């Protein structure tokens, strides 16, 4: 019996029932068959040797495809576990997934033992040894009772708990390679031979199931590649990433700090960082003002009932800080985890007419979410962060145009920093609607609006299922930084559900009460995460219009301090931001220290400059050098800023 296979370009071929993805690749070309790692069948990524028994849409995934990398790293996680099982008898296994850049496995060694970085080489060698055997990865469907029996016999306590609590009979599969068997939904490579280069990158603590009251396991992170050259290039990138670490550069530039006495994950913005952050906010304010936004300020706490109504408590309660009890019996408040419920209440504050719509409410709103200590990382994972949030309330016929306008805003905002970005449409998991609120009809309308907006703008967008917010689909903007890493920053979400949950309404032109549609948007995403990404993208060398100090004045000796102060005063009066280094140090030391602060220009003043009203300019990094009048330097800086900001 033949089945029809439809390819991404719309072409259709006929194959015998039971054909595999590998056989389809072989029918196209031997080169494709050698490079393909997994295949997508009707939107589900599966192994290349999985039989296809009915008409299907198929995609063939190679290394350059995200699904191909994910499959490769998923098998690598199992390879790590196989190596650990052989090296550490009695080891307990938790979960071991692929992640955005590589894989990890959570493990617990017997007798209080632990794995150290000094053990990595031994583990890597064992992984390479096992991979060289080209062990087949075999998928098997098993009954729940049989799975429990098998993992109990192997002493795998955590696997048994996972089976008992999370898995239903008839849905359980295992994958076996060599002497290692794991619970897994897949997909995987057909064998381990594809894995040619391996590097374990770090080890950290991780509580079982993320519960701080449970056992602390060890989480081993690693990455792997089909070619050694790829690993070598990755290791070079890692070294460059260390140099660009925003935590290191932020400290050198005196932008932000953390204090254990204040609390983990609670960033404190220092004067120079605050100056830069406010300039970022002003940049967005100018842009969104042209689009009719009104700015508001809402409290940092809210009644727990507010978030119960919105649905955030049910979906994100465990990620929130514990409710705040008041002297009033039964009264509970939360540190604000989201701004949108507050903005819904602003809409509901007074009667609204169709003539009032769209209503565009913006806020740089600080929110608070509980991140586990082990997950905190500089400004990218914090417990307190400020979203450049806005919520647009509009009629259904206005949704697409408002969405297009937001896309324009994000384009203007992100292009000011030289970012190249791509779009990702995040939709519901088609197989698990229970995770989401709202009707299928509303979801279909919201998803259609996003897809049509992308088509109208000619913006290529990758579709990701299962990545939508619980209340609606979204369009995420992914940027690629200077060393090739991808970051998710801006986002736009279409929401038919929160307005219904808050019973929002407006009077339409037919005098009937209608429910508005809500659009959530945040071009930066959060001020903290955006700043971290910008620091690492630029290595701290910000555009001149944004950098906290555009110039530092360096007197050659104390004799010229007064003249240096006069120079700085003139800079400040004409909008040039600067500082002065009055330390009794040699000029070379001052230059080196201020280079670390990434100040774009240094002006050196000594006897000649003081006598003739001049400054000797030196560009950051040993670039352009020249002597000029104070006014000429001011004009140069202001002209450079004007050129950088002319488009926004």
TrEMBL record:
Coiled coil region boundaries: none
Family matches, as SUPFAM superfamilies: Class II aaRS ABD-related, Class II aaRS and biotin synthetases, TGS-like, ThrRS/AlaRS common domain
Binding note for cofactor: Binds 1 zinc ion per subunit.
Record PROSITE patterns: AA_TRNA_LIGASE_II, TGS
Chief site of localization: cytoplasm
Entry cofactors: Zn(2+)
Keyword Mitochondrion listed: no
GO biological process: threonyl-tRNA aminoacylation
Aminoacyl-transfer RNA synthetases class-II family profile domain segment(s): 245-555
Entry's localization field: Cytoplasm
Keywords: Aminoacyl-tRNA synthetase, ATP-binding, Cytoplasm, Ligase, Metal-binding, Nucleotide-binding, Protein biosynthesis, RNA-binding, tRNA-binding, Zinc
Catalytic activity: tRNA(Thr) + L-threonine + ATP = L-threonyl-tRNA(Thr) + AMP + diphosphate + H(+)
CDD domains, per database record: TGS_ThrRS (cd01667), ThrRS_anticodon (cd00860), ThrRS_core (cd00771)
Subunit architecture: Homodimer.
Family: Belongs to the class-II aminoacyl-tRNA synthetase family.
HAMAP family membership: Thr_tRNA_synth (MF_00184)
NCBIfam families: thrS
Protein name, as recorded: Threonine--tRNA ligase
Organism listed in the record: Prevotella communis
Gene: thrS
């Amino acid at each position: 019996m033949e089945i029809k296979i439809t390819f991404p370009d719309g072409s259709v071929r006929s194959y015998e029932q039971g054909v595999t993805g590998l056989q389809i690749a072989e029918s196209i070309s031997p080169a494709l068959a050698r490079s393909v790692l997994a295949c997508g069948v009707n939107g589900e990524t599966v192994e290349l040797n999985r039989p296809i028994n009915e008409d299907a849409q198929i995609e063939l995934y190679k290394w350059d495809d995200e699904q191909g990398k994910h499959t490769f790293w998923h098998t690598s996680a199992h390879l790590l576990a196989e190596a650990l099982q052989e090296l550490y008898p009695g080891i307990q296994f938790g979960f071991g997934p692929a992640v955005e850049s590589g894989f990890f496995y959570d493990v617990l060694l017997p007798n209080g033992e632990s794995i150290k970085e000094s053990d990595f080489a031994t583990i890597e060698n064992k992984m390479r040894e096992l991979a060289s055997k080209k062990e087949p990865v075999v998928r098997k469907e098993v009954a729940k009772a049989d799975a429990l029996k098998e993992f109990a016999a192997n002493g795998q306590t955590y696997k048994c708990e996972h089976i008992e609590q999370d898995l239903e009979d008839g849905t359980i599969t295992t994958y076996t390679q060599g002497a290692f068997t794991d619970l897994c939904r897949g997909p995987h490579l057909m064998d381990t031979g594809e894995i040619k280069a391996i590097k374990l990158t770090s080890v950290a603590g991780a509580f079982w199931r993320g519960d701080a009251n449970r056992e602390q396991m060890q989480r081993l992170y690693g990455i792997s590649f089909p070619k050694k050259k790829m690993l070598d290039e990755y290791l070079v990138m890692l070294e460059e990433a260390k140099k660009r670490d925003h935590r290191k550069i932020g400290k050198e530039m005196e932008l932000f700090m953390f204090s254990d006495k204040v609390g983990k994950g609670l960033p404190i913005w220092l004067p120079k960082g605050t100056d830069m952050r406010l300039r970022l906010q002003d940049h967005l304010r100018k842009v969104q003002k042209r689009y009719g936004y009104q700015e508001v300020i809402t409290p940092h706490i809210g009644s727990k009932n507010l978030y119960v109504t919105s649905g955030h408590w049910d979906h994100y309660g465990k990620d929130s800080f514990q409710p705040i009890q008041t002297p009033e019996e039964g009264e509970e408040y939360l540190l604000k985890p989201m701004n949108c419920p507050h903005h819904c209440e602003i809409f509901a504050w007074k009667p609204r007419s169709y003539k009032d719509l769209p209503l565009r409410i913006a806020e740089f709103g600080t929110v608070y979410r509980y991140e586990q200590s082990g997950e905190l990382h500089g400004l990218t994972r914090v417990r307190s962060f400020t979203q450049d949030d806005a919520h647009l309330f509009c009629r259904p016929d206005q949704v697409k145009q408002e969405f297009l306008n937001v896309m324009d805003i994000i384009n203007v905002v992100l292009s000011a920093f030289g970012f190249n970005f791509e779009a990702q449409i995040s939709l519901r998991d088609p197989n698990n609607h229970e995770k989401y609120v709202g009707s299928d009809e509303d979801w279909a309308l919201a998803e259609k609006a996003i897809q049509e907006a992308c088509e109208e703008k000619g913006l290529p967008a990758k579709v990701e299922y299962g990545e939508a917010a619980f209340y609606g689909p979204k369009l995420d903007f992914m940027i690629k930084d200077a060393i090739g890493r991808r970051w998710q920053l801006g986002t736009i979400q279409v929401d038919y559900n929160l307005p219904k949950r808050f019973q929002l309404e407006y009077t339409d032109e037919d005098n009937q009460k209608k429910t508005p549609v809500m659009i959530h948007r945040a071009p930066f995403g959060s001020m903290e995460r955006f700043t971290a990404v910008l620091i690492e993208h630029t290595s701290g060398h910000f555009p001149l219009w944004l950098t906290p100090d555009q110039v530092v004045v360096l007197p050659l000796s104390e004799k010229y301090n007064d003249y240096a102060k006069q120079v700085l005063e003139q800079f400040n009066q004409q909008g040039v931001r600067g500082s002065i280094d009055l330390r009794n140090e040699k000029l070379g030391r001052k230059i080196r220290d201020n280079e670390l602060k990434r100040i774009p220009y240094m002006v050196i003043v000594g006897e000649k400059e003081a006598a003739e009203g001049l400054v000797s300019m030196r560009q950051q990094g040993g670039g352009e050098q020249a002597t000029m009048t104070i006014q000429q330097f001011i004009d140069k800086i202001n002209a450079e800023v004007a050129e950088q900001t002319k488009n926004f």
